[in-house]
Design a protein that fits this description.
It is a single chain. With about 450 residues, the protein is of the alpha/beta class. The protein folds into 3 domains: about 90 residues, Rossmann fold; about 200 residues, Mur-like, catalytic domain (UDP-N-acetylmuramoyl-L-alanine:D-glutamate ligase, 3-Layer(aba) Sandwich), CATH 3.40.1190; about 130 residues, Protein-Tyrosine Phosphatase, Chain A. It contains 17 helices and 20 strands. It has a 9-stranded mixed sheet. Strands 15-16-20-17-18-19 form a 6-stranded mixed sheet, with helices on both faces. Strands 3-2-1-4-5 form a 5-stranded parallel sheet. β15 and β16 form a beta hairpin. The termini are far apart.
Length: about 450
């Protein structure tokens, strides 16, 4: 689609919307940035974008809608809002920020989705590709908008993209050379309403792939295993539980890659990452890189020095014999289960936050005698407390503020204990995002 001189509406004033607006200006589009929140500062938004952009807040008129060639919707904007439906009824194309970047960007795309593990897998794959290809960009849900760098890309570029369900809802022609779905567990049901709709959004990552492409899937997740029977792409499975005839698997602590001949990648003792969930992330990244044609030596050298990502079971420090871990990225119960499973000390657990309509039963069951005290805060604290008590866990303390939660743990923990921030909830309402929450935790811990 030729957008030069055309009127394009960008819906959403977050980092994706700002990046998309800047890119559209560069290619000569007439940009309107729209946000339904009329309390925002229009001048401030204009300053962030620069150049000539029209900012509309609150209501969007029919006249403006009728003048549009395209709407670019940010991932944080629900696709079933009345204003979006009105634009859809007018048969105006609706793209996500990802689709816009893909259409105008160049190079090969390696894209990852899944409920848990995608940031670690994306970061690791990004490091592998940087060691193989000079022009590598790591974009998407990991925090770097795809549109912010799309116009810098060349035919020799590799794009490593972390894709959320929100981003994958609004693709059209997006087709990664290699895709991966790591797992499916309930998340964002307040937005998608059903588990089926959530999974369908994520499955879009492989929707346009052909037999020339590769889709990497988790053999141990029944949904992703079944999906492997339906995709048009060539499928590579990974497994932490069994030997595979084709794919990558864990056997006696060894990661083996087998697509005709067995290749030892490494032993897990050579990795800096801990836990079976991380070994699965490593296998997914290795499978994607190998499917793309990256030499195994480059892959081996990279995975052995990779230290993980910030805010994901991140060791902060030890004070007075107590180890502090930041797992702020544990924004849903399944992710937070991985945090608990990684602990090898009696643990003071800080949980609670924004309610995404999650159920917390499996998280509580995963405490498995490891959790010494559960310190709860945020909108979900009563709901989690009720669930915990229903499962026979009574060692619960309520905190009114984040600072108080950390202070309770610091005062109560004894040498040999761990304090783990792994909330099982989103941060909204208290913090802008999980990164801000994790940074605050680390600041409070360092100041103890």
């Amino acid at each position: 689609m030729e957008l030069s001189g055309k009127k394009v509406l960008v819906f959403g004033s977050g980092i994706s919307g700002i990046a998309a607006s800047k890119m559209l200006q560069t290619i000569g589009a007439d940009v309107i940035l729209y946000d339904g929140n009329e309390k925002l500062d229009a001048e401030k938004i204009q300053e962030q974008i620069g150049g000539a952009v029209t900012v509309i807040l609150g209501e969007l008129s029919e006249t403006i809608m009728d003048s549009l060639a395209l709407m670019v919707i940010s991932p944080g904007v629900p696709t079933d809002l009345p204003v979006v439906n009105r634009i859809r009824e007018k048969q105006i194309p609706i793209w996500g920020e990802i689709e816009l970047a893909y259409v105008y960007g160049k190079g090969d795309v390696l894209a990852i989705t899944g409920t848990n593990g995608k940031t670690t897998t994306t970061a690791l794959l990004g490091e592998i590709m940087k060691n193989y290809k000079e022009s590598t960009y790591v974009v998407g849900n990991i925090g770097n908008p795809y549109t912010s760098v799309a116009l810098e890309m060349t035919d020799d570029t590799v794009v490593v993209a972390e894709m959320s369900s929100f981003q994958l809802e609004t693709i059209d022609t997006f087709r990664p050379k290699v895709s991966a779905i790591l797992n499916f567990t309930p998340d964002h049901l307040n937005r998608h309403h059903t588990m089926e709709a959530y999974m369908e959004a994520k499955k879009n990552i492989a929707r346009n792939q052909t037999a020339e492409n590769t889709c990497v899937l988790n053999y141990e997740d029944p949904e992703t295993r079944a999906f492997g029977e339906k995709v048009k792409a060539s499928v590579l499975y990974f497994s932490s539980q069994r030997k595979l005839k084709k794919g990558i698997y864990l056997e006696n602590g060894n990661i083996i890659y087998n697509v005709g001949t067995e290749e030892l990648i490494c032993n897990v003792d050579e990795l800096q990452l801990l836990g079976t969930h991380n070994y699965e992330n490593v296998m997914a990244a290795v499978a994607m890189a190998a499917a793309y044609g990256t030499p195994l030596d480059v892959i081996r050298d990279t995975i052995k020095v990779f230290g993980g990502v910030e805010h994901r079971i991140e060791f902060v420090t030890e004070k007075n014999g107590v180890a502090y871990y930041n797992d702020s990225k544990g924004t849903n119960p399944d992710a937070a289960i991985k945090g608990i499973q990684a602990m090898n000390r009696p643990t003071w657990l800080i949980g609670g936050g924004y309610d995404k309509d999650s159920a917390y039963d499996e998280w509580i069951e995963a405490f498995d005698g490891k959790v010494k005290k559960l310190v709860l805060l945020g909108a979900t604290r009563e709901k989690i407390a009720e669930t915990a008590k229903a499962h026979g866990f009574m060692d619960i303390v309520m905190a009114d503020t984040f600072d108080e939660a950390v202070d309770i743990c610091a005062r109560g923990a004894v040498p040999g204990d761990a304090v783990l921030l792994s909330p099982a909830c989103a941060s909204w309402g208290m913090f802008k995002n999980f990164e801000e929450r994790g940074d605050k935790f680390k600041e409070l811990v360092q100041n103890l």
